[in-house]
Amino acid sequence: MARLRWRDRVLMALRAELLQATWNYERQQGLGWAWSLAPALRRLLPDREARCARLVEHTAYFNTQPTLASLALGAAARLEEERVAGGGADAESVLRVRSMLGASLAALGDRLFWLTLRPFAACLGVWVALNGGWRGAVVMLLCYNGVHQVMRFSGIGLGYRLGPAVLDDALRRRLDRLTRALCMGGAIIVGVLVAALLVPGGEPRPLVFQVTLTAGLGLGFVAAQRPRPSPTQWALGAGVLCLAATWWR
Protein backbone atom coordinates (compact mmCIF):
# COMPACT_ATOMS: atom_id res chain seq x y z
CA MET A 1 0.00 0.00 0.00
CA ALA A 2 1.30 3.45 -0.94
CA ARG A 3 1.90 5.74 2.00
CA LEU A 4 2.75 9.42 2.11
CA ARG A 5 6.37 10.30 2.72
CA TRP A 6 7.83 13.23 4.62
CA ARG A 7 8.73 14.85 1.30
CA ASP A 8 5.10 14.70 0.15
CA ARG A 9 3.92 16.49 3.27
CA VAL A 10 6.57 19.19 2.90
CA LEU A 11 5.46 19.79 -0.69
CA MET A 12 1.86 20.10 0.51
CA ALA A 13 2.89 22.69 3.10
CA LEU A 14 4.85 24.68 0.50
CA ARG A 15 1.92 24.66 -1.89
CA ALA A 16 -0.44 25.69 0.90
CA GLU A 17 1.42 29.01 1.00
CA LEU A 18 -0.50 29.83 -2.20
CA LEU A 19 -3.84 28.47 -1.01
CA GLN A 20 -5.63 31.72 -1.82
CA ALA A 21 -3.80 32.54 -5.07
CA THR A 22 -6.83 31.41 -7.10
CA TRP A 23 -9.50 32.58 -4.65
CA ASN A 24 -12.83 33.23 -6.38
CA TYR A 25 -16.43 33.81 -5.37
CA GLU A 26 -17.66 30.47 -6.70
CA ARG A 27 -15.29 28.06 -4.95
CA GLN A 28 -13.19 30.43 -2.85
CA GLN A 29 -10.16 28.34 -1.78
CA GLY A 30 -11.27 25.20 -3.62
CA LEU A 31 -8.74 25.35 -6.46
CA GLY A 32 -5.89 26.19 -4.08
CA TRP A 33 -6.94 23.31 -1.85
CA ALA A 34 -6.80 20.82 -4.73
CA TRP A 35 -3.42 22.16 -5.86
CA SER A 36 -2.05 21.84 -2.30
CA LEU A 37 -3.31 18.26 -2.02
CA ALA A 38 -1.91 17.23 -5.43
CA PRO A 39 1.48 15.93 -4.09
CA ALA A 40 -0.36 13.46 -1.83
CA LEU A 41 -2.62 12.26 -4.63
CA ARG A 42 0.36 11.92 -6.97
CA ARG A 43 1.95 9.57 -4.46
CA LEU A 44 -1.24 7.60 -3.72
CA LEU A 45 -2.66 7.39 -7.26
CA PRO A 46 -0.05 6.68 -9.94
CA ASP A 47 -2.76 6.40 -12.61
CA ARG A 48 -3.20 9.85 -14.17
CA GLU A 49 -6.90 9.52 -15.00
CA ALA A 50 -7.81 8.36 -11.49
CA ARG A 51 -5.71 11.14 -9.97
CA CYS A 52 -7.32 13.83 -12.13
CA ALA A 53 -10.79 12.56 -11.24
CA ARG A 54 -9.90 12.74 -7.55
CA LEU A 55 -8.49 16.25 -7.95
CA VAL A 56 -11.74 17.39 -9.55
CA GLU A 57 -13.60 16.26 -6.42
CA HIS A 58 -11.35 18.44 -4.28
CA THR A 59 -11.90 21.60 -6.34
CA ALA A 60 -15.33 21.93 -4.72
CA TYR A 61 -16.11 24.93 -2.50
CA PHE A 62 -13.84 25.30 0.50
CA ASN A 63 -12.99 28.20 2.77
CA THR A 64 -11.19 28.50 6.09
CA GLN A 65 -8.43 30.46 7.80
CA PRO A 66 -5.43 29.98 5.45
CA THR A 67 -2.84 29.01 8.06
CA LEU A 68 -4.93 26.43 9.90
CA ALA A 69 -6.01 24.96 6.56
CA SER A 70 -2.85 22.85 6.88
CA LEU A 71 -4.54 20.79 9.62
CA ALA A 72 -7.46 20.02 7.32
CA LEU A 73 -5.10 19.24 4.42
CA GLY A 74 -3.21 16.71 6.52
CA ALA A 75 -6.44 15.08 7.67
CA ALA A 76 -7.76 14.90 4.10
CA ALA A 77 -4.51 13.31 2.94
CA ARG A 78 -4.87 10.68 5.66
CA LEU A 79 -8.43 9.93 4.53
CA GLU A 80 -7.34 9.68 0.90
CA GLU A 81 -4.65 7.20 1.93
CA GLU A 82 -7.25 5.09 3.71
CA ARG A 83 -9.58 5.40 0.73
CA VAL A 84 -6.93 4.04 -1.65
CA ALA A 85 -6.32 1.15 0.75
CA GLY A 86 -10.04 0.37 0.86
CA GLY A 87 -10.36 1.39 4.50
CA GLY A 88 -13.94 2.65 4.31
CA ALA A 89 -13.45 6.31 3.45
CA ASP A 90 -15.33 7.44 0.34
CA ALA A 91 -15.69 10.68 -1.61
CA GLU A 92 -18.66 11.84 0.44
CA SER A 93 -16.99 11.27 3.80
CA VAL A 94 -13.80 13.04 2.68
CA LEU A 95 -15.71 16.11 1.51
CA ARG A 96 -17.85 16.10 4.67
CA VAL A 97 -14.81 15.99 6.97
CA ARG A 98 -13.14 18.71 4.89
CA SER A 99 -16.19 20.97 5.23
CA MET A 100 -16.57 20.39 8.99
CA LEU A 101 -12.89 21.03 9.69
CA GLY A 102 -12.90 24.12 7.48
CA ALA A 103 -15.74 25.75 9.42
CA SER A 104 -14.26 24.94 12.84
CA LEU A 105 -10.73 26.03 11.92
CA ALA A 106 -12.02 29.29 10.47
CA ALA A 107 -13.56 30.24 13.81
CA LEU A 108 -10.37 29.42 15.73
CA GLY A 109 -7.93 30.78 13.17
CA ASP A 110 -9.62 34.14 12.59
CA ARG A 111 -9.52 34.84 16.32
CA LEU A 112 -5.91 33.73 16.71
CA PHE A 113 -4.29 35.16 13.59
CA TRP A 114 -6.37 38.11 12.36
CA LEU A 115 -7.68 39.47 15.67
CA THR A 116 -4.77 38.63 18.01
CA LEU A 117 -1.43 37.71 16.42
CA ARG A 118 -1.48 40.33 13.68
CA PRO A 119 -2.18 43.28 16.04
CA PHE A 120 0.34 41.88 18.53
CA ALA A 121 3.07 41.67 15.87
CA ALA A 122 2.25 45.18 14.65
CA CYS A 123 2.45 46.66 18.17
CA LEU A 124 5.71 44.86 18.85
CA GLY A 125 7.13 46.18 15.58
CA VAL A 126 6.09 49.76 16.39
CA TRP A 127 7.65 49.45 19.86
CA VAL A 128 10.98 48.37 18.38
CA ALA A 129 10.73 50.99 15.61
CA LEU A 130 10.58 53.84 18.16
CA ASN A 131 14.32 53.40 18.73
CA GLY A 132 15.34 50.76 16.22
CA GLY A 133 13.96 52.27 13.01
CA TRP A 134 13.75 49.67 10.22
CA ARG A 135 14.37 46.87 12.70
CA GLY A 136 10.77 47.25 13.80
CA ALA A 137 9.56 45.96 10.44
CA VAL A 138 11.90 42.97 10.69
CA VAL A 139 10.69 42.16 14.21
CA MET A 140 7.05 42.42 13.10
CA LEU A 141 7.58 40.01 10.19
CA LEU A 142 9.57 37.56 12.29
CA CYS A 143 7.00 37.62 15.09
CA TYR A 144 4.05 36.92 12.80
CA ASN A 145 5.73 34.39 10.55
CA GLY A 146 7.37 32.62 13.46
CA VAL A 147 3.91 31.42 14.49
CA HIS A 148 2.38 31.35 11.01
CA GLN A 149 5.04 29.24 9.29
CA VAL A 150 5.50 26.82 12.18
CA MET A 151 1.77 26.21 12.24
CA ARG A 152 1.65 25.90 8.45
CA PHE A 153 4.29 23.14 8.27
CA SER A 154 3.58 21.30 11.52
CA GLY A 155 -0.17 21.35 10.83
CA ILE A 156 0.20 19.08 7.80
CA GLY A 157 2.00 16.44 9.86
CA LEU A 158 -0.39 16.75 12.79
CA GLY A 159 -3.46 16.47 10.57
CA TYR A 160 -1.99 13.46 8.76
CA ARG A 161 -1.13 11.72 12.03
CA LEU A 162 -4.49 12.27 13.74
CA GLY A 163 -6.83 12.36 10.75
CA PRO A 164 -10.36 13.75 11.29
CA ALA A 165 -9.74 13.79 15.07
CA VAL A 166 -7.05 16.46 14.70
CA LEU A 167 -9.28 19.20 16.09
CA ASP A 168 -9.76 17.62 19.50
CA ASP A 169 -10.21 19.36 22.85
CA ALA A 170 -6.46 19.31 23.56
CA LEU A 171 -5.63 21.29 20.42
CA ARG A 172 -8.45 23.73 21.06
CA ARG A 173 -7.15 24.37 24.57
CA ARG A 174 -3.61 24.97 23.29
CA LEU A 175 -4.82 27.45 20.69
CA ASP A 176 -6.98 29.21 23.29
CA ARG A 177 -4.01 29.49 25.67
CA LEU A 178 -1.87 30.93 22.90
CA THR A 179 -4.58 33.46 22.05
CA ARG A 180 -4.93 34.57 25.68
CA ALA A 181 -1.15 34.90 26.07
CA LEU A 182 -0.91 37.07 22.96
CA CYS A 183 -3.82 39.22 24.18
CA MET A 184 -2.10 39.83 27.52
CA GLY A 185 1.24 40.55 25.86
CA GLY A 186 -0.41 42.92 23.38
CA ALA A 187 -2.12 44.84 26.18
CA ILE A 188 1.22 45.28 27.97
CA ILE A 189 2.95 46.48 24.80
CA VAL A 190 0.15 48.98 24.05
CA GLY A 191 0.54 50.41 27.56
CA VAL A 192 4.29 50.79 27.13
CA LEU A 193 3.81 52.37 23.69
CA VAL A 194 1.33 54.91 25.02
CA ALA A 195 3.71 55.88 27.82
CA ALA A 196 6.64 56.16 25.40
CA LEU A 197 4.66 58.32 22.99
CA LEU A 198 3.14 60.60 25.63
CA VAL A 199 6.29 61.16 27.67
CA PRO A 200 9.33 60.57 25.43
CA GLY A 201 12.55 61.06 27.35
CA GLY A 202 10.63 62.29 30.41
CA GLU A 203 9.17 65.36 28.63
CA PRO A 204 5.38 65.28 28.15
CA ARG A 205 3.96 65.86 24.69
CA PRO A 206 1.70 68.86 23.92
CA LEU A 207 -1.94 68.55 24.93
CA VAL A 208 -3.08 68.40 21.29
CA PHE A 209 -0.90 65.35 20.71
CA GLN A 210 -2.22 63.64 23.86
CA VAL A 211 -5.84 64.24 22.91
CA THR A 212 -5.26 63.02 19.35
CA LEU A 213 -3.51 59.88 20.56
CA THR A 214 -6.32 59.13 23.01
CA ALA A 215 -8.94 59.64 20.30
CA GLY A 216 -7.00 57.40 17.92
CA LEU A 217 -6.80 54.63 20.49
CA GLY A 218 -10.52 54.95 21.18
CA LEU A 219 -11.38 54.72 17.50
CA GLY A 220 -9.04 51.76 17.15
CA PHE A 221 -10.76 49.84 19.94
CA VAL A 222 -14.17 50.59 18.41
CA ALA A 223 -12.98 49.48 14.96
CA ALA A 224 -11.58 46.27 16.45
CA GLN A 225 -15.11 45.17 17.33
CA ARG A 226 -16.06 45.12 13.66
CA PRO A 227 -15.00 42.52 11.06
CA ARG A 228 -11.42 43.06 9.96
CA PRO A 229 -10.98 46.09 7.68
CA SER A 230 -10.45 45.62 3.98
CA PRO A 231 -7.02 46.26 2.40
CA THR A 232 -8.37 49.55 1.04
CA GLN A 233 -9.38 50.68 4.53
CA TRP A 234 -5.96 49.71 5.91
CA ALA A 235 -4.23 51.68 3.15
CA LEU A 236 -6.39 54.77 3.69
CA GLY A 237 -5.86 54.62 7.45
CA ALA A 238 -2.09 54.33 7.05
CA GLY A 239 -2.13 57.27 4.64
CA VAL A 240 -4.01 59.49 7.09
CA LEU A 241 -1.61 58.59 9.90
CA CYS A 242 1.40 59.42 7.71
CA LEU A 243 -0.09 62.82 6.80
CA ALA A 244 -0.81 63.58 10.45
CA ALA A 245 2.74 62.59 11.49
CA THR A 246 4.20 64.79 8.76
CA TRP A 247 2.08 67.76 9.86
CA TRP A 248 3.18 67.43 13.51
CA ARG A 249 6.85 67.37 12.52
Uncertain segments of ≥5 residues (pLDDT<50)?
Answer: none
The fraction of residues assigned to DSSP E strands is under 5%
Mean pLDDT: 86
Order of helices and strands: HHHHHHHHH
Decide which structural class fits the backbone. mainly alpha
**Number of discrete helical segments:** 9
Q: How far is the N terminus from the C terminus?
A: 69 Å
Count of DSSP strands:
0
What is the helical fraction, as a range of percent? over 70%
**Rg over C-alpha atoms, rounded to the nearest angstrom:** 22 Å
The number of distinct structural domains comes to 2
The backbone outline, from C-alpha atoms, is: elongated
Main pleated sheet: none
Outline the structure in words:
There is one protein chain. The protein has 249 residues and is mainly α. It folds into 2 domains: 6-99, no CATH class; 111-223, no CATH class. The chain is 76% helix and 0% strand. It has 9 helices and no strands. Helix 2 runs antiparallel to helix 3 (48-58) and helix 2 runs parallel beside helix 4 (69-84). The longest helix has 42 residues, at 91-132. The mean pLDDT is 86.
Tags for this entry?
249 residues; mainly alpha; 2 domains; 9 helices
Topology:
Layout (H helix, E strand, L loop, with lengths): L5 H11 L13 H15 L3 H11 L10 H16 L6 H42 L2 H28 L6 H30 L8 H18 L6 H18 L1
Short description:
It is built from nine helices and no strands. It is 76% helix and 0% strand.
